[in-house]
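call fold(seq) -> C-alpha cells
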Amino acid sequence: CANVASLSLVRAAGRGQEMAVRSALGAGRWRLVRQLLTESTALSFTGGAAGLLLAFWGVPALLALAPAGKIPRPEMIRIDGWVLAFTFGISTVTGILFGLAPAFQVLKPDVRDSLSSVGRRVTGGHERLRGALAISEIALALMLLTGAGLMLKSFLRLRSVNPGFVSQSVMTLTVDLEDSTYRTAGQMQAFHTRTLAGLSGLPGAVAAGAVDWLPLGDALAMGDFQVEGRLRPRSFIVDKPCVSPGYFRAMGIRLQRGREFTERDNKTAPGVVIVSQSVARTLWPGEDPVGKRISMEDHPKPEDWLTVVGVVDDLKQRALAKSPDPAIYQPYLQVSHPFFLSHMTYVLRTTRPPVSVAAGMRAVLRNVDKDQPISIASMDSLISTTIAEPQFQTRLLASFALIALMLTVVGVYGVLSYSVRQRTQEIGVRMALGAQNVDVLRMLLKKALVVICAGIVIGGAGSLAFARVLARFLFEVKPSDPATFAAVALLLAGSALSACYIPARRATGVDPLVALRYE
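ret:
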C-alpha cells in the first residue's frame, strides 16, 4: 500500500500542469478526481491480480512446508470466491484511499497559480509524505525481520539441544499388540523377546532394545512411588518407562554408575530399577543410589521393594524445549500388567545407513507375526517431526520478512529516484558552481540515510513490542536479544542504502548544461 501511495503521489505531482490545463479548459473538479481515482484503482487492481497469482503458487508451497497434522483441514485452504472478493475489496479500498490524497493535492482552487508554477518542482508536502511512507515501510520491514531473526535463532538453538541420547544411526519400529491375540503379559513378553533376538541378528546391528514409550513421544506412564527409609518430596513425580536389556546402549544413553538390565532380570529374580540422574540427586543427595530401594506401590509389601542397580543420564522425554524429565526405568520382563507391554517401540543401532535396514526389520516382524501392523522410522526423522512446527513458524515469518524487505528496497529506490529526477536542475546548478561528484553523492545519500535511520528507530520500538508477543515461541533467546536487533538493523540499512546508491550514482553523471535546461 505504501508503494502504491508513493507511486500515486509521484504521478500526481508530475501531472500538476496537465490537471491545471484540463481544469482551465473547462473540466470539472470532480471529473478530474474521478480520472485520478480510476487510474489509482486500476494500478491497485493490477497489484491485486499479481498478488493473487503469487498466492496461487504460494499457498501450495506453504502447505507443503507445514508439518503433517498440525493444520486442521488443509484441503480447505485454497483460493476461493471469498478470497477473490476480499482481494477485490482490498484493491478497491487501497486504490481509493491512496488516490484521494494526490487527487485533492493536485486540484488547487486557483488555476492561475497552477499554470504559473512551470519550473517548480514537487512541493514539500509531497516530499514529506513520500518520506513518511518510506519510513513506515522500513519500520514494518524491521519488525518482521527482527521477528524472523529471533525465531531463526531460537530454532537453531532448539536443533542443537542435547536430548540425552544419540539419535544418529538408529531405526525405530513400533507395534501395538492386539488383545485378541496377545492376552497375557507372558505372551507379550515372549513376542518382544523373539523380536529383539531377530533384530540383534541383523547385519550391521550394534545393539537392539525396546521401550514402551519412546522419548519425545506422545505418552508416558507417570506416577507416585515410595522411598525406603525416607519421605519422598510431595511434588516430585517421575516417568516410569518400561525397557528391555540393551535399550540404553541402543539409544546411546550414558550409564553413570551401576549396571544395565540383563535377561536375568525377570520375574524369578529380585525386582530392580534404574534411575535417572535427577532422581538420584533428589532422593539421595551426596549418596550412592546403587543398592537403595523404592516401591511403586502405596503400601508396599516386602516383595514390592525394588533395588536400584544403575544410574543413567536424564533425557528430554517430552519435548526438546522442556527440561529433562526424572525417570525410573523398569525391566519389561518384570512387568506383570499387559497394559504396559502392549505398545512397544524397538530401537536398533546399526553401522549401516538406518534406512537400509528397514527391510530387514520388517522381515524380522513377519517371522514373528506376519499379521502384526508396524510403523518404522529413523530416530532422526522422529526428532525432525518434533521440531517441525517451530520450523514452519520460522519459515513462514521469514518469508513475510523477505517480501517486506524486497518491497522496502523497491520503495526506497523509487522515492530517491524520483527525488533525483525532481532535483535535476538543482544538481546541475551545484555542479556548474564547482560541486564534485562525491559532493552530489554525499548529499543524496545523506538524505536517504535520514529516512532509513528514522525508519530503523521507529521500527526498533515496534520490534520490541512485536518480540514480546513472540516470547512464548522462543527457546533460550531473549525477546530483546541485542545481537539479533543489531544484525537485522545492519541488514536493512545496508539493503536500503544499496538501493539508494544506484539513483544517487546516476545523478553524478548529469551534464550541467543539460540539467540547467531540464524541465
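The longest strand covers residues 343-350.
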